[in-house]
Design brief:
Shape of chain B: elongated
Largest interface: A-B, 87 and 97 residues
CATH topology of chain A: Rossmann fold
Radius of gyration of chain B: 21 Å
Helix content of chain B: 25-40%
CATH superfamily of the largest domain in chain B: HUPs
Helix content of chain A: 25-40%
Strand content of chain B: 25-35%
CATH architecture of the largest domain in chain B: 3-Layer(aba) Sandwich
CATH class of chain A: Alpha Beta
CATH topology of the largest domain in chain B: Rossmann fold
Number of strands of chain A: 13
Number of strands of chain B: 17
Number of helices of chain A: 7
Strand order of the largest sheet of chain A: 9-8-7-10-6-1-4-5-11
Oligomer: heterodimer
Number of domains of chain A: 1
Shape of chain A: globular
CATH superfamily of chain A: HUPs
Strand content of chain A: 25-35%
Number of domains of chain B: 2
Largest sheet of chain B: 9 strands, mixed
Order of helices and strands of chain A: EEEHEHEHEHEEEEHEHEEH
Distance between the termini of chain A: 58 Å
Structural class of chain A: alpha/beta
Strand order of the largest sheet of chain B: 9-8-7-10-6-1-4-5-11
CATH class of the largest domain in chain B: Alpha Beta
Distance between the termini of chain B: 51 Å
Order of helices and strands of chain B: EEEHEHEHHEHEEEEEEEHEHEHEHEH
Chain lengths: 259, 322
């Protein structure tokens, strides 16, 4: 089975994340980049599927040079090879353009199964798997807490608002996985050494057949009007519990008309 | 006046509060119209009329509910093509963000997710306010290509009635083969009890590491029930298996912005703050006076939650006269 995992490098969620003053794009330089946490579950799921059904796991990322760090991490976990789409023309692409660019690469390299993390920790849109499925014209099985594959049939448990739905389709398909579907493995020393020798194909827009008039900040379908740091919340009232903390909390709730 | 389309959120014909909120937004930008996928529109009609829906486009039948996200996206795409609405508004749920994404691809339109406010900007375009990076930055964005597709978080506006006809208008929707690729074979409803939904609740009571155990979490449920609130949990709690994962509030879980958020035994790491920072009022109880949650709290009690919460429960009972 030919499995492709889409991986995004994001700023560390523990760091202070900012937009750049000039073009209101994400400041990726001033903070450490690392693999989107939810994508690690996607990589783990791909490795488990490969271990059960055979095949090959390819990591696909789109992003600046620096994103190759995240690709290496994915390779050190056990993925077989990687494709890094990198082109200055892609900088500032919105979700519509990103889904277009990734779909072009996926069409080019081929796949039986595409796996995404449920969302990225920076933009948090959670729409990529659906958009790729729409563009590629294949079934979307997303927000999965469980994935089962028998032959070319795939079934997932899809998280719903009040429980879960069982959703079934035939491969090829695009899936996205939730945290808790598995426990991502740590790269072993052997894995880290092996990753250095694994093939990493660097692709430009031209290589992938991406029309540069459809990507990048200037061609985005959305624009930032303005942005600002949230003003600090007004300092609240903090009391020490001297045996009356609960009563004081109740007084506050009553004053605010919650009780 | 162009229509502003709102995708209805409903279960068994009961319209969810967030849909009424979206109708309240919609009338600021055009004539509110509803897209209703699935059955039950007749039951929901009165509610939609009360909150200003002029037209309700209905696509019912098995096909629409047998497949995930693609039917709604095709319904909305056909309405965008036929009615040229000024915008499409959806409640910000996991499913709807996917529907919005498919619709954006189908109509070559810009999409904005997780708006917490909408306002008219220059030239009448809709400007969405988003709270990003765990609430640290406020961004105003607009769509500049196609039909604006915007998902809006529950509790972003108070729903206000504005009676209209809510004329039920059947839409003949024939799904494409591609939309039928992923079939829903079973819908499993997990017991939620009587509590409101976490995403929509006006009050959320969340417990953190401070509760100490799965048994300790019971006090959080009692406090929530005393206020008619939803229950949330920090990642420490769900990782430890003390409470189900789907109740996790934070960066990798649910984002909530209720009127009142009560953080009980939660230190307030950035991962957690990302999921609750936009709450209107925040009350915290924690035994560590240095806990970062107190930087956000409108009211905080430094103390043992197992001392403070029982007393709070007593006082709530007294004040509510029960």
């Amino acid at each position: 089975m030919n499995i492709v995992v889409c991986v995004k490098q994001v700023p560390d969620t523990w760091a202070e994340r900012k937009l750049k003053q000039g073009d209101a794009t994400l400041d990726r330089e001033s903070v450490d980049g690392l693999i989107n946490e939810l994508d690690e579950y996607a990589i783990e799921e791909a490795l488990q599927i490969k271990e059960a059904h055979g095949g090959e796991v390819t990591v696909l990322t789109m992003g600046p040079e620096k994103a190759s760090e995240s690709v290496r991490k994915a390779l050190s976990m056990g993925a077989d090879k990687a494709v890094h789409l990198v082109d200055d023309a892609l900088a500032g692409s919105d979700v519509l353009a990103t889904s277009y660019a990734l779909a072009k690469v996926l069409e080019g390299i081929g796949f039986d199964l595409v796996i995404c993390g449920a969302e990225s920790t920076d933009a948090r849109m959670g729409a990529m798997a659906a958009m790729l499925a729409e563009r590629l014209g294949v079934p979307q099985l997303s927000l999965a807490s469980k994935v089962e594959i028998v032959g070319t049939e795939i079934g997932i448990n899809r998280q719903s608002e009040d429980g879960y739905w069982r959703v079934e389709a035939s491969l090829p398909a695009v899936i996205s996985v939730l945290e808790k579907i598995n426990e991502p493995r740590y790269p072993s020393f052997k894995g880290i050494m092996a990753a250095k020798k694994k093939p990493l194909q660097v692709m430009s827009c031209a290589d992938a057949g991406i029309d540069t008039a459809l990507v990048g900040l200037a061609n985005a379908a959305t624009e930032v009007v303005d942005f600002a740091e949230r003003p600090p919340r007004q300092t609240g009232t903090i009391v020490k519990d001297d045996g009356d903390g609960g009563a004081k909390a109740a007084e506050f709730l009553a004053a605010q008309k919650f009780i | 006046m162009a229509e502003v389309l709102v995708l209805a959120e409903h279960t068994g014909g009961e319209v969810k509060k967030v849909t009424l909120e979206l109708l309240t937004f919609a009338r600021q930008f055009g004539e509110p119209a509803v897209a209703w996928a699935g059955d039950g529109a007749e039951q929901g009609q009165a509610r939609l009329a009360e909150y200003g829906a002029v037209t309700v486009y209905v696509a019912g039948g098995g096909d629409v509910t047998d497949f995930a996200t693609a039917p709604e996206a095709e319904l909305l795409a056909s309405l965008v093509a036929g009615k040229s609405p000024a915008a499409v508004l959806l409640a910000s749920t996991g499913q709807n963000k996917e529907i919005a994404g498919r619709l954006a691809v189908k109509t070559d339109s810009g999409m904005l997710c997780d708006a917490v406010g909408l306002a008219a900007g220059d030239g009448g375009k809709i400007v969405a306010e988003q709270s990003v990076f765990g609430g640290a930055t406020i961004v105003h964005s607009a769509v500049k290509a196609g039909t604006p597709i915007i998902t809006v978080r529950p509790n972003s506006i108070a729903a206000e009635p504005a009676p209209a006809a809510a004329a039920l208008t059947p839409v003949d929707l024939t799904l494409s083969e591609a939309a039928k690729g992923a079939k829903i074979t079973e819908k499993v409803v997990q017991e939620r009890g009587e509590r409101p939904e976490l995403a929509e609740a006006a009050i959320v009571v969340s417990g953190g590491r401070g509760v100490g155990s799965a048994d300790g979490f019971e006090i959080i449920e009692r406090l929530a029930d005393s206020l008619g609130a939803a229950v949330g949990a920090s990642r420490a709690v769900t990782d430890a298996g003390w409470y189900p994962h789907k109740f996790q509030v934070g960066q990798t879980g649910m984002t909530v912005s209720p009127q009142l958020y009560m953080a009980i035994g939660i230190s307030g790491a950035i991962q957690h703050r990302a999921g609750m920072q936009t709450s209107k009022t925040i009350l915290a109880v924690n035994k560590d006076p240095e806990a970062p949650i107190f930087e956000l709290a409108d009211f905080g009690v430094v103390g043992d939650l197992f001392q403070v919460v029982p007393q709070l429960l007593e006082d709530i009972a007294k004040r509510s006269g029960s």
